Amino acid sequence: MINIIAIDLDGSLLDDNKNLPDDFWETAEQVFKKGINMVIASGRPFHNIASVFEPIKDKLYFACDNGAYVVHSNEELLVNQLNTDAIKNFVEISRPIENVYPVLCGKHLAYIEDTDKVFTDQALKYYQEYKIVDDLTKVDDVILKISLCDLAGSETNSYPFYKQFENNFKVAVAGQIWLDITNIDGSKGTAIKTIQKRLGISPNETLVFGDYLNDMDMIQEAGFSYAMKNAHPKIIEAAKYVTELDNNHGGVTYTIKKLLGI
Predict the structure, then answer these.
(1) pTM of the predicted model, to two decimals?
(2) How confident is the model at residue 182 (pLDDT cuts 50, 70, 90)?
(3) Is the pLDDT of residue 115 over 90?
């Protein structure tokens, strides 16, 4: 029996143009009628995700910033804050790397140093609430995550510089041009476990959908783990199942309706 459905956004629920499937709202209504909880798990910040789901935001659980921040109906269930020394170190490492732009992700605000249009055209798709500062290492706020916008390709360009920190931090390739760093327990998997514990629901009652490497921990916390048809090969290998349809053809909602008979 499924009692939690956790869904990644970009590359999973959303199509490549960042649109929800046409049948999403109807599907969500049917899911709620069955008493099933729905989690939106994304590397995006809370303000951005909540705006996408405004009509039903109080019904949803949000695992934001790759699980470092979990919110339900205006209640904070998890706040996983990076320490200032780590932030300073990671920012300074990023500066000499070509085509890399760091973003500090707070609970309600993102911080950036650079205003190059090639960078802001990408970053401001997700960080509508932001502040430009002179020096990211001097930001005084609760920082949940550092995101590196890597226009040369995160998996091959910036990730090798941060791989050395994987024993103490979660370093996740979150997309073709995004590398995310959180505390070691700041992951979508930890977020899902937090929600499962709160609701008294086991992994065997959990259905998840993901497409990229930052979904790996979440995939491992579910009895019903689905990689998107368009997913990264390592996610397809790790998941128990693969959707019949990709993100551009409503693969998530199609699978949910098929599994739940709605």
Answers:
(1) 0.89
(2) very high
(3) no
Measuring CA to CA, which residue among 9, 89, 84 is closest to residue 44? 9
Other Cβ atoms closer than 10 A to 102: 26
For residue range 23-72, what is the model confidence (pLDDT) as tens digits? 999 999 999 999 999 999 999 999 999 999 999 999 999 999 999 999 99
Q: Which residues of 240-255 are buried (b: 16+ CB within 10 A; e: fewer)?
A: eebbebbbbebbbbbb
pLDDT more than 90, % of the chain: 92
Rounded CA-CA distance 100/258 in Å is 42
The structure tokens listed for 163 are 């791989």
C-alpha 210/C-alpha 11 separation (Å) is 8
**pLDDT for residue 146 is more than 90:** yes
Only one residue has tokens 């029996």, namely 1
Question: By the 8 A CB rule, do 144 and 183 touch?
Answer: no
DSSP string, 165-182: GTTTEEEEEEETTEEEEE
Q: Alpha carbon of 205 to those of 4, 17, 182, 201: distances in Å?
A: 7, 31, 27, 6
Compute the distance between CA of residue 60 and CA of residue 71 in angstroms, rounded to an integer. 9
Rounded (10°) angle between helices 24-33 and 251-260? 30
> Cα dist. 104→27, 84, 120, 197, 252 in Å?
34, 11, 14, 29, 30
d(CA 67, CA 53): 18
**21 near 15, Cβ under 8 Å?**
yes
CB 24 within 8 A of CB 13: yes
